[in-house]
């Protein structure tokens, strides 16, 4: 299957925005537990979920946005831009984490909402107030559902080294990243969750591998050397694995046959350090999406425009969705509603996501404006694959 090259075309790949928008909506739905729409999100049809897709796309976007300077040997400017972006994400995380703590605390003390507080580990703030308060800006204290931005901050900072190495040797970069992933599984090395006796929910030493693969894919776009080119048998195998995973998870068929007999590195199913099965599934899914033209046409269609807009303004949408989701958790505990009403409220929340994206796209939501480089990445929409063909440096 040949990949068409379209010289001189340099526009956004709408598929990347569409998939990111779908991932954001999936995260929002999943972050409001016990609502009927949860049954139809991606985690019910495969071994991975929106988190893996989100981090993979983050790596692609970072590479598209910042690798140009590294390829030219001019490190200072892209490194400065990456660190500024990491600072923005850090500020956003601290802000939405603080808002979430206020919402949960209000629900607890004013309305007696205890289950949400216990479920997300708000109780740490009650029992160890000062250290927990200090832990928020240190990224050590993370309540449930507010774990991914700290991971992304760390990965962004790490991307300076990943890009520096990848622009010299993609295989060397991936080899180092693979080694770190293996060590995360074998040794349990992790960032500390402080105050607490455990590590981060998303272990950066494990999750950096899927991010690094995304960086390599994005670099393949920039240089015209795809990380994994079209291969018929591999494409068929990817489809078979994706369909097998969908059936297995949807019908709750238990442990995957033979998995327990494999070495621990492959048998582990823990999401924290990024289990091999989850990694293999998201990569197979990515290969299917990349090399199936019909999927690309659907993702780039006019009907997907609202989702594309949300994906293009990912930070603003994610921040708003995170706060709205925790608010709905508290509200639903105070005022229990039927499943139909829950669905209606979730749909209104999705509409709110679109309005936030619209405002951000028009530059009305500083500091969430998505004029940042990785969310303005330019790739060719005419390519059957986002890993085939060079692109121009996106505007910051």
3D architecture notes:
It is a single chain. The protein has one domain. Strands 1-2 form a two-stranded antiparallel sheet. By secondary structure, the protein is mainly alpha-helical. It is 62% helix and 1% strand. Helix 3 runs antiparallel to helix 7 (148-166), helix 8 (170-187) packs antiparallel against helix 9 (204-223) and helix 15 (314-334) packs antiparallel against helix 16. The chain crosses the membrane at residues 53-75, 87-111, 145-165, 172-192, 198-221, 233-251, 275-294, 315-335, 341-360. It holds the Pfam family OpgC_C.
How far do the termini sit from each other? Answer: 34 Å
Strand arrangement in the largest pleated sheet: 1-2
Count structural domains.
1
Mean pLDDT: 89
Q: What string gives the helices and strands in order?
A: HHHHHHHHEEHHHHHHHH
Radius of gyration: 21 Å
Share of helix, binned: 55-70%
Total beta strand runs: 2
Q: Tell me the structural class.
A: mainly alpha
Shape: globular
Number of helices: 16
Largest sheet: 2 strands, antiparallel
Q: Could you name the ranges where pLDDT drops below 50 across 5 or more consecutive residues? A: 1-10, 370-396
- Beta-strand portion reads under 5%
Protein name: OpgC protein
Keywords: Membrane, Transmembrane, Transmembrane helix
InterPro entries: UCP028704_OpgC (IPR014550)
Organism: Zhengella mangrovi
């Amino acid at each position: 299957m040949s990949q068409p090259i379209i010289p001189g075309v340099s526009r956004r790949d709408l598929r990347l925005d569409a998939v990111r928008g779908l991932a954001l909506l999936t995260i929002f739905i999943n972050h409001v537990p016990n609502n009927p729409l949860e049954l139809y999100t991606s985690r019910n049809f495969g071994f991975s979920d929106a988190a893996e897709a989100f981090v993979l796309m983050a790596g692609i976007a970072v590479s598209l946005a910042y690798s140009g300077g590294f390829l030219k040997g001019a490190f200072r400017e892209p490194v400065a831009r990456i660190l500024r972006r990491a600072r923005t994400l850090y500020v956003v995380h601290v802000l939405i984490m603080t808002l979430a703590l206020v919402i949960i605390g209000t629900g607890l003390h004013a309305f007696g909402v205890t289950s949400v507080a216990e479920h997300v580990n708000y109780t740490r703030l009650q029992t160890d107030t000062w250290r927990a308060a200090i832990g928020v800006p240190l990224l050590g204290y993370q309540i449930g559902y507010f774990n991914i931005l700290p991971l992304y901050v760390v990965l962004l900072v790490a991307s300076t080294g990943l890009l520096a190495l990848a622009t010299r040797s993609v295989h060397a970069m991936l080899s180092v990243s693979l080694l770190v992933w293996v060590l995360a599984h074998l040794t349990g090395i992790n960032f500390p969750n402080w105050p607490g006796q455990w590590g981060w929910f998303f272990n950066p030493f494990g999750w950096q591998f899927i991010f690094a693969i995304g960086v390599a894919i994005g670099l393949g776009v920039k240089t015209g050397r795809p990380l994994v080119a079209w291969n018929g048998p591999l494409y068929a195998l990817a489809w078979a694995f994706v369909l097998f995973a969908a059936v297995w998870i949807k019908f709750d068929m238990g442990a995957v046959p033979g998995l327990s007999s494999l070495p621990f590195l492959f048998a582990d199913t823990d999401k924290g350090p990024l289990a091999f099965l989850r990694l293999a599934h998201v990569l197979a899914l990515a290969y299917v999406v990349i090399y199936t033209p019909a999927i690309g046409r659907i993702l780039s269609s006019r009907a997907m425009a609202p989702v594309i807009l949300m994906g293009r303004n990912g930070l603003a949408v994610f921040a708003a969705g995170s706060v709205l989701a925790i608010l709905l958790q508290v509200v639903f505990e105070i005022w229990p509603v039927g499943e139909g009403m829950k669905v209606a409220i979730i749909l209104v929340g999705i509409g709110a996501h679109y309005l936030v994206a619209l405002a951000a796209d028009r530059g009305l939501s500083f500091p969430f404006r998505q004029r940042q480089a990785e969310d303005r990445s330019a790739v060719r929409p005419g390519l059957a694959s986002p890993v085939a063909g060079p692109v121009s440096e996106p505007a910051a």
